[in-house]
Amino acid sequence: MDQEQQDGELADVSLLDASNPDAEDSEPAAASKAPAIRPLVLEGSWRGLEPWWLRAGVRPYLLVGDVLAFVAATAITSPGSRFHVLALLAYLVVCQTAGLYRSRLSLSLLDDLPYIVGASIVGFALKLALISLLPSVDPPPRQVVHAVVLLVAVLLVRRVAYTVVRRARSLGRVRHRTLVIGAGQVGVRVAETLLEHRSYGLDPVGFVDCEAPDEEPALLPAPFLGTYDELGRVIRQNAVRDVIVAFGAVDEEDLVDILRTCDRLDVEVFFVPRLFELHNVNRYTDEVWGIPLIRARRAVFRSPWWKVKRLIDVAVSAVALVVVSPVLLACAVAVRLEGGPGIIFRQQRVGIDGRPFDVLKFRSLKPVDQTESQTNWNIKHDDRLGPVGRFLRATSLDELPQLWNILRGDMSLVGPRPERPYFVEQFAGHIPRYTARHRVPAGLTGWAQAHGLRGDTSIEDRARFDNYYIENWSPWLDMKIVLKTVGQVVRRQGG
Hints:
It is a single chain. The chain is an alpha/beta fold. It is built from 16 helices and eleven strands. Strand 4, helix 7 and strand 5 form a beta-alpha-beta unit. Helix 1 runs antiparallel to helix 4, helix 2 runs antiparallel to helix 3 and helix 8 packs across helix 12. The longest helix is centred in the first third of the chain and has 31 residues. The protein is flat. The relative contact order is 0.09. The N terminus is likely disordered.
């Protein structure tokens, strides 16, 4: 098995298949005509289909194998050297950067050879550079011997590992239940290839498309399991581990929204690129018998770094509440003196998965009633806005109480800015993929706000920037947004 470890149990997918509430209990009619496959398995039970030691995939074993090979090479050549650990770290970093620990359908030692040699050279060069600084480093001849022995040991370990993986797949010890999206010519070709070449470890359990194909479904290499609206049900009910997107009958623009179903499910998604006969295969492209497959990036909230993001949110918001408490007190006093009672303004906003929550802000002005609070778009130019309220908004100090929202888990430091339910309903009807912003928690600041998209600016642009942030999230992107936001606050570019 060479898939990355799936993080956590299946997420709550109650929002999926909303257009077909009875989908869980209904079977597609075409399925009865299709050839028999393995019995259907209930949601999440794929974990019981394989031993625990296979669930993490091949990645940790390759990492451990490289470390053991390095230790063996060091013990054979120069057991007394204290600086090999630096070379080991450099070696592992180069291998990780070159994708030698990533999940792959095709395992080839010859494909890896240039990168393994490069990693060995980097480690050798690092130790060679230390000779001029640290006299106790082994002399160059011994370093050369160590690099050669290391290269041989790593190649032997990987040769054995790749052989074991391919053998386990071919014998059915490691199999991933795979759904093919698109029952056309390309989808059928992919399914037939996987059935014929079992060394890839993927078992096509069926097809999903707009509608059942015109030809007799029994002629398909795997059964037709349902339509796009039933994708979530099909994945869960058939314990699907991998989804391959071939050329279906739906437009690619519509397919984006359909495939967002997979974000909340424990599956890996591959795409057959358009004009794949002309597609240039690189280190990060998988292939099955000459058909290139592009692995989609995992949804950000399935990344281990997403848990780190939440820990940072808690730590930063807790510390910030203490550090800025004098500022909070000064703002509260100023608001009370200018506008009377009611320092904190609570307003309902829409958060992750469309769930509402009350966002906290310092009151800039008192709304006439609750309806005005929920439907008035922008108060920046409102005549009732006093000097204190105007200053708080210009400096974004009115947002500081949202640190409590972040600490409670309603929001994150960085994410799409939350909007009121009234406007969410309005925008969702005509802004493409507006509701896709709600896949992650709302943020105190975001990628759109970092580009000046606040106040009376394009909602479509905001949604596009927010979805870009979600698809391309990284810890460094969060840092960039924070730094840009600080610059805007200093320049008093608040809304």
